[in-house]
Design a protein that fits this description.
Number of domains: 2
Radius of gyration: 26 Å
Distance between the termini: 36 Å
Strand order of the largest sheet: 2-9-4-5
Structural class: alpha+beta
Oligomer: single chain
Number of strands: 10
Number of helices: 5
Largest sheet: 4 strands, antiparallel
Shape: elongated
Length: 238
């Protein structure tokens, strides 16, 4: 199922309409929202993107919206010649030191290796062009993160943000423990509803696959009998 998205800014603005939450920090709310999205396990939350990036001095800056790398291809080498080679990740912690060591080694052994550290991608090639396929955060036109436009997910995100903020206020003796516990109940209910709906959506997908297979079998059978029994009732014998 394709998800529609709503800007997280709209969700946070709605939370901050309450006087209790008008001092909520926007950056904190974003971090908490990402935490709860991961807890709910919404696989469609991230979008698949590709981007062409130039490598210089054995490294390049990754896209600012990337979450995880899916695949990387080398498309142009340092001499400007077109390539189409799949690169591979490496756990070698010394990859960043290859420029200093390449005189003592066969560069071909590592030219297709890459390693991600922070916001940078370190490679075994000095320069060239790569195409990166990655999972990214969905962003609106103002680069605000978007979340699925689903009432159960929105409520879960709102209650989690409120709960984390209330915990801070409680530590500062600005709200009572009852206030925090009440929000914990609300949060648990909303998360349960969101997760339950995700399970039903997965069952719906399985049902769609089953129906598609059933239709294929039906079409095969009626074709063999020249559609003579296509409208006849079926009886299950036990």
């Amino acid at each position: 199922m394709e998800l529609k998205f709503i800007s997280l800014k709209a969700v946070i603005d709605r939370i901050m309409m309450s006087p209790l939450y008008n001092s909520l920090r926007f950056d904190s709310a974003i971090l908490w929202a990402i935490d709860i999205i991961n807890l709910i396990e919404v696989p469609e939350f991230f979008v698949q993107k590709t981007k062409v990036i130039h490598v210089e001095d054995y490294r390049c800056l990754l896209p600012y919206d990337y979450v995880t790398i899916t695949k990387i291809n080398l498309t142009t080498d340092g001499d400007g010649l077109p390539q189409r080679k799949a690169m591979k990740t490496t756990s070698d912690p010394y990859l960043k030191g290859y420029p200093l060591r390449q005189a003592n080694m066969d560069q071909r052994e590592v030219e297709l290796d890459y390693r991600v550290e922070g916001d940078y991608l370190y490679t075994g090639i000095e320069s060239g062009v790569i195409e990166v396929a990655y999972k990214a955060l969905p962003l609106d036109s103002d680069n605000y993160i978007m979340i699925p436009d689903n009432i159960f997910i929105i409520r879960a995100v709102e209650s989690y943000i409120k709960l984390q903020y209330l915990k801070i206020l409680y530590d500062m003796d600005e709200v009572t423990r009852d206030k925090v516990e009440s929000m914990e109940v609300d949060y648990n209910w909303n998360v349960g509803q969101a997760q339950a709906q995700r399970q039903f959506e997965n069952l719906d997908k399985l049902e769609s696959v089953k129906n598609a297979v059933s239709r294929l079998v039906l079409l095969k059978n009626v074709h063999e009998t020249d559609y003579r029994y296509a409208t006849s009732k079926e009886y299950r014998r036990i």
